[in-house]
Amino acid sequence: MNQEQSSLVLQSSSNFSPPEGVKLSYGTAGFRADATLLKSTVYRVGILAALRSIQTKSVIGLMITASHNQVSDNGIKIADPNGGMLSQLWEPFADSLANVADPFELVQLISDFVSKEIIPLDNVRSAEILLGRDTRPSGEYLLEAAKQGISSIKGAIYHDMGILTTPQLHWMVRARNMGMNSTEHDYFQQLSQSYRCLVELIPDGKKASKSNDKVVVDGANGVGGDKLEVLRELCGDLSIEVRNSSKGEGVLNKGVGADFVQKEKVVPSGFGPIDVGLRCASFDGDADRLVYFLVQPDSKLIDLVDGDKILSLFAHFIKEQLDVLKDNELEKPCDPYHPRLGIVQTAYANGASTAYLKNLGLDVVLTPTGVKYLHEKASEYDIGIYFEANGHGTILFSDTVLSWLEDRNSELSSACTGSEKHKAALRLLAVSKLINQAVGDALSGLLLVEAILLHTGWSIQKWNELYKDLPSRQLTVWQFALFFIVIKVKVVDRTAVVTAKAETVVVQPAGIQEAIDTATAKYRHGRCFIRPSGTEDVIRVYAEAATQEETDSLANSVAKLVDQFLGFGSSQ
Ligand SMILES: CC(=O)N[C@H]1[C@@H](OP(=O)(O)O)O[C@H](CO)[C@@H](O)[C@@H]1O
Ligand SMILES: [Mg+2]
């Protein structure tokens, strides 16, 4: 790093000293903390984004959000050139960069990294960063910090894209780097056109029986509801009622939103008796998570239709289209290509969903928590569908399957336009354009769910019973618990917990896994695991059992074990 560049960083960094006594880590989904602690981190991530852009010769994204966390928190994450999460290879550098205190050490750290990674800092052709933020008030001044970080690398420029959902920013980065239209308008156009295309492809017989009843959407008092209102206008007769948009009185994520609904299983604010029986959905604060729910007759509790169910609906639909497309031997015996459809879940996935998916004949794999792991795994398939139970997920299409679908489309459009086969190819192509290829996206996920429900003619009640249908198809899914709970336990040092086997087994501290196993064995269909959160300073305890009471009891007894092994009492 030359003298001029070093002094630029030295000078600008003097306004951004990291807070004392706080150690930040890139975590499951970027840096997150109380917003007052983040100015220096965001500035430094600005530097990192500029370096990443120079190194990859591509546009990079920076999103300022703390997703479903409380409004006083904020965070920052990086979108890599393909629109996905930052390469894990750069995470250690991100951690060091965020935590180094002395300005001269900061310059040294950057300089060493630049040399090690051979980043051509002296010959910067272009380095471009797209900036986005959610509706948090702290986003404004953190954005300024990001801009200053970027500007302290010579030749790097930024474009402030304003308030966006996280998936919109990832989508834009990917589109920019692929040379495609990449504005917010383009995003809305692509999603709405693909949705309308799927609706047009609904078989004629089914169309008549459709009553397009409305879906009521909880926008978590954040950005998602606002964007959905724009999208709704472009989607023809899709009837959407948005509640809890950012323009209302409510506080971001407080008593609302996908995380609240999924974890608490109670109705979000703004919903009540008038919604009993309606199809309802919740986004999280930055609209990368989507869950559906039904308000129970008592109008307080909900039946949750979570990420596992959305995944199952998508898998069912995609598999159906692939089956229609499959050549029958007589018709075309020599097409050797059969797209591999794969499903990726985490240990939080309900056992019943995994059983359902396997029963469809699908390949199901588990990864650790965090989209960066699921996304990577899903991209190994021709069509990879991934979802976290909390509602973050998408469907990835490989280049190979896309060109195969294009070929099938042209073949079939000349041979048998309008046939079910032709329509199946067109549907899969429309799904690949509708569903965000960069990250899970509540807006595109909602449109796909709505299109599939119209296609199948299913009500949300029928969809919710997807797994319960199974016994009639010879699979004893009642052997799997349908109840689960996730609770948090504060401990002295959460990094003392080390897990293996996609986070299903604890290897450290010694003895705790045996104790968890003993506790779990006492419950019918019990399943339980613990892991350190990557976004909060807690240990999460997941428990599943035959009834809600047994589930709660299992979770509480394991929470006690966590406290015994790792809690504040344990260290004395
Ligand atoms: C149990 C749970 O919901 N964990 C969430 C949560 O991660 P933790 O590492 O558990 O804090 O936030 C992540 C980012 O949004 C999300 O990917 C993940 O699924
Ligand atoms: Mg989120």
Keywords:
alpha/beta, 19% strand, TATA-Binding Protein, binds magnesium ion, 19 helices, 5-stranded mixed beta sheet, 572 residues, globular
Q: Report the strand count.
A: 19
Widest sheet, order of strands: 1-3-2-4-5
CATH architecture of the domain at 3-163: 3-Layer(aba) Sandwich
Q: Identify every distinct bound molecule in the structure, by name, code or SMILES.
A: 2-acetamido-2-deoxy-1-O-phosphono-alpha-D-glucopyranose, magnesium ion
| Sheet/helix structural class | alpha/beta
For the record, what is the CATH homologous superfamily label of the domain at 3-163?
Alpha-D-Glucose-1,6-Bisphosphate, subunit A, domain 3
Question: What is the CA-CA span between the terminal residues?
Answer: 48 Å
Low-confidence stretches: 469-479
> How much strand?
15-25%
Output the CATH class name of the domain at 3-163: Alpha Beta
Q: What is the molecular shape?
A: globular
> What does the radius of gyration come to?
24 Å
* Oligomer state of the chains in this structure: single chain
What does this protein structure show overall?
The chain is α/β, with parallel strands linked by helices. Among the domains are: 3-163, Alpha-D-Glucose-1,6-Bisphosphate, Chain A, domain 3 (3-Layer(aba) Sandwich); 472-571, Alpha-D-phosphohexomutase, C-terminal domain (TATA-Binding Protein), CATH 3.30.310.50. The chain is 41% helix and 19% strand. The chain is built from 19 helices and 19 strands. It has helices at residues 3-13, 39-56, 91-99, 103-116, 139-151, 166-177, 184-200, 204-208, 223-232, 258-264, 307-325, 351-359, 371-378, 399-415, 420-434, 442-456, 460-464, 512-521, 548-566, and strands spanning 31-34, 59-64, 73-79, 127-133, 156-163, 215-222, 240-245, 279-283, 290-295, 302-305, 341-345, 363-366, 383-387, 393-397, 483-489, 498-500, 505-508, 527-532, 539-545. The strands form five sheets. A five-stranded mixed β-sheet has the order 1-3-2-4-5, sandwiched between helices. Mean pLDDT is 92; it is low at 469-479. InterPro entries: A-D-PHexomutase_a/b/a-I (IPR005844), A-D-PHexomutase_a/b/a-I/II/III (IPR016055), A-D-PHexomutase_C (IPR005843), A-D-PHexomutase_C_sf (IPR036900), AMG1_II (IPR049023), AMG1_III (IPR049022), PAGM (IPR016657). Residues 182-291, 306-458 form the Phosphoacetylglucosamine mutase AMG1 domain. Residues 1-14 have a biased composition (Low complexity). Residues 1-20 are annotated as: Disordered. It comes from Spinacia oleracea (Spinach).
